[in-house]
Amino acid sequence: MDRRRRGLRWGPWLAGGMGTAIGIALVVGGAWWWLFGSANFQGVRRAYFTVTVGESAWSVARRLTSVHLLHTPWGFIWLAEQRRWGGRIRPGTYRLRASDTPLSILKTMVQGKAINQITVVAGSRVSLVIRHLLRLHIGTRQAYRRLERRGLPGMPAPAPGVRDALEGYLWPATYAVFRGSTAKGALLPMWHAFEQHTEAFRHRLGSGWALKRVVTLASLVAAEVKYRSEDARVAAVFANRLRRHMPLQSDATIYYAEGGSRRGSLTNADLALASPYNTYRNHGLPPGPIDNPGAQALAAALDPARVGYLYFLTAPNGRVELANTYAQQLRHLASLKRH
Question: Cα dist. 109→94, 183, 186 in Å?
Fold first, then answer.
C-alpha cells in the first residue's frame, strides 16, 4: 500500500519535472534563437546595408535590428566582443539576406566583403579607376572630367600640358565605395590616403614643385618596371639622364600620350608624336605623372640606387637589363631578338 502510494506520488513528480525541463529547454532555445538565430530562417529577401567609416559595432547592430536583419542587437554585440572583432568591422555596402545569422553578418563585415569595392593597383591610371567607378554607377562622366581638369582640394596645381590633374595622387589600395557617393566623394579617400602615406617625405621636399617631380619620376618607374626589386636601379637611370640633360626616352610616356592601353614596339610615327608627354622629343620629365605609383616606386624616386647606368630595357620575362653605354644597350637588344 505504501509502495503504491509512493508510486502515485512519483508520477506527478516525474511529469512535473519533465515539464519543467522541457520548459527550460524551450526558454533557453528561444533565447538562443532570439540572440543568435536568423531574423527569418527561410527569408530570401536581400537587403543592401552600408557601414560608414568609423561606425561602431553597437551602431551597426542597432541599425541591423531596425531594418529587421537581426532580432536584437545583443547577440551581434556579444559575438563581436567575444571574438574581439568590434573594431574590425570594415566600411562598405554589403548585400545581406534575411536568413543570415548575426555571426555570418559579422564575419562578412569583418572580412570586408562589401559589394562596392575598388582597388587602385600600383601603376594603374586614373582613367582605369574612373571606368571602374562608372561601372558601379558612382559619379558621372562630366563630374570626373571636371575633377580631371582641376584636381581635388590640396592636390598640386596641374602644370601646363597636364592631361589629368588627378594622375599620380590616388594611393594604391582597396577602398569601400558607398552607394550614392559622388565622384568627388569616391576619390577623396584615395587622395587623403596619398597625403597620409607620403606625409613624411612631403615635409622633406618642401615645395609642391618638388613633390610633382618625385611623383612623376616614380610614375615612370612604376610603368616601366614589372618587379619592384628593380625600381631603385631604373630610377637611377632616369635620374642620371636628367643630370646629363639626356632625353628620358621612356616608352611608357608614349603609351600614355596616345591614351590607349597597348604595349609593344614603338614605330617612328609613335616616336614623333607631338605631345608634351613624349620623352623622346622633349627633354626632362613629362608635365605630370603618367600613373599612380606605389610606395616602392616613390621610395626609389626619392632615393635612386647609386649606380651609373644610363640605359635599360625590359625583357619579355619582366627582368631589366641595364647598360652604361649605348653600345652595350645595342648588344642587349640584339641578344633579346635572338631569343
Answer: 8, 24, 20
Instruction: Rounding to the nearest 10 degrees, give the CA dihedral for residues 205, 209, 210, 211.
Output: 80
Residues sharing a CB contact under 8 Å with residue 316, sequence separation 6 or more, in sequence order: 336
Predicted confidence (pLDDT) per residue in 221-251, tens digit? 999 999 999 999 999 999 999 999 999 999 9
Q: In sequence order, what E strands does the chain have?
A: 46-51, 92-97, 117-119, 174-176, 311-314, 320-323
- What are the structural domain ranges in the chain? 46-110, 126-338
Cα dihedral 29/33/34/36 (nearest 10): 130
Give the list of residues 6+ apart from residue 2 with CB closer than 8 angstroms, or none: none
- This prediction has a pTM of 0.73
Q: Which CATH architecture has domain 46-110?
A: 2-Layer Sandwich (3.30)
Residue-averaged pLDDT of the chain: 86
Would you say 91 and 62 are in contact if contact means Cβ atoms under 8 Å apart? no
Residues 6+ apart with CB under 8 A from 262: 255
In 28-83, beta strands by DSSP E:
46-51
Q: Is 123 left (phi over 0), alpha (psi -120 to 50) or beta?
A: left
The CA–CA distances, whole Å, from 218 to 21, 134, 223, 313 equal: 71, 27, 9, 17
CA 73 – CA 70 distance, rounded (Å): 7
